[in-house]
Amino acid sequence: MKDRPHVAPFDPERLRAEFPALGIEVHGKPLVYLDNAATTQKPRAVLDRIVRYYEQENANVHRGVHALSQIATEAYEGARARIASFLGASGPDEIVFTRGTTESINLVAHGFARSVLGPGDEIVITHLEHHSNIVPWQLAAEATGAVVRVVPIDEDGTVDFDAYLDLLGSRTRIVSVSHVSNSLGTVNPVERFVRAAHEHGIPVLVDGAQAVAHAPVDVRALDVDYYCLSGHKMFGPTGIGALYGKAEALDRLPPWQGGGDMIASVSFAGTTYAAPPLRFEAGTPHIEGAVGLAAAIDFLGAVDRDAAAAHEAELVRYAHERLASIPGIRFIGTSPHKTAVVSFLVGSLHPYDVGTLVDRFGVAVRTGHHCTEPVMARYGIPGTVRASFALYNTKADVDALVEAVDRARRLLS
Ligand code: PMP
């Protein structure tokens, strides 16, 4: 990373201390937070940045000549530049601010529905997608007569790459695939997906919601056409995210919401639109969210990301090893390429019951289908218990999880 500040030796204990929420108690027990795939906690630097914005920089962006408006505009546009360099984009104009991954995917799907897709055209997704990378494409298909084609997954949660190759064809208009599965932890080989699609001239969208907090991402090295992220899953605020698009990939999308800031000129005879990214940012944006997200990127920039990734991989390995000693445990998602997520069931116990009891012992995990109902249907299960890790988790958190799950098992059996 070019504008990288001093990178301290990786120390999860020191990092933990930067997150006020990790110090709280729930049900009279110290919080063990293992729901990071749903949302991460926020470091002090992000919280302070948001307060400073409101105390010293708050004004509307883009439209003002007064000093404060210029400061706010610089903060907002500076955040866009920070995201661009974080992702390795060619420049800030390739970054559209959105509410998050869901809105980013909807923006592209809507654009494709209005400008590219027609009857019989095909959209290729995989079986392990989050609902937010399924439903927008179903809506686009419904509106245009296009068809959603789904690449199957193997028993361990790996996407069947040969089946993917077979699905690519002259009717395929876009491939939309997640970088990392939120319910299985599978890491998809995005470069291979992209290379194969590009051989047919097919653009690729990657849902990076679960990837960016766990490993550096370089959109140009991956050669993706679109990449989507959510600020709140990478230590930033909720309600802010981004869509990266190659310049020509954004250019091909028509406007999707009308209003202030997205226009070149408005008249009753006809309106012309701003160039990307502003074309896709109608109305007053989430300025506070953008500056908070930039602070989260700065926080990550001061972390040794390779060491953090190795630490998280060790937590996942350790969690599998220790949980395996619990009678009746069944892991869902055992791909050799996985990160940060451990999904499991205990005997015939319902995941909600296990999760509810585990919470009483202070351990926050998520239970249910994790917005991936087709994955649950694939395994014939109602849902899973999911522990998901971030760089501030420790082996002590895993120990607390294992003890809580085993106590829950004994109480429920
Ligand atoms: N994709 C994946 C893989 C996710 O895990 C999530 C969030 N659980 C989303 C998309 C949607 O993200 P958001 O709710 O922040 O828009």
Give structural notes:
- This protein has two domains: 136 residues, Aspartate Aminotransferase, domain 1 (Alpha-Beta Complex), CATH 3.90.1150.10; 254 residues, Aspartate Aminotransferase, domain 2 (3-Layer(aba) Sandwich), CATH 3.40.640.10.
- Helix content is 39%, strand content 16%.
- The chain has 14 helices and 17 strands.
- Helix 5 links the parallel strand 5 and strand 6.
- Helix 2 runs antiparallel to helix 10 and helix 3 packs across helix 10.
- Bound molecules: 4'-deoxy-4'-aminopyridoxal-5'-phosphate.
- The site of 4'-deoxy-4'-aminopyridoxal-5'-phosphate has 14 residues, from helix 4.
Write the layout of secondary structure elements.
Elements: H1 12-16, E1 25-26, E2 29-30, E3 32-33, H2 44-57, H3 67-87, E4 95-98, H4 101-115, E5 122-126, H5 135-144, E6 147-151, H6 161-167, E7 172-178, H7 190-199, E8 204-207, H8 219-222, E9 226-230, E10 241-245, H9 247-251, E11 263-265, E12 272-273, H10 287-301, H11 305-323, E13 329-331, E14 341-346, H12 351-360, E15 363-364, E16 366-368, H13 373-379, E17 384-388, H14 395-412
Parallel strand pairs: 3-15, 5-6, 5-7, 7-8, 8-9
Antiparallel strand pairs: 1-2, 4-10, 9-10, 11-12, 13-14, 14-17, 16-17
Helix pairs in contact: 2-10, 3-10, 4-5, 11-14, 12-14
Bound molecules: 4'-deoxy-4'-aminopyridoxal-5'-phosphate.
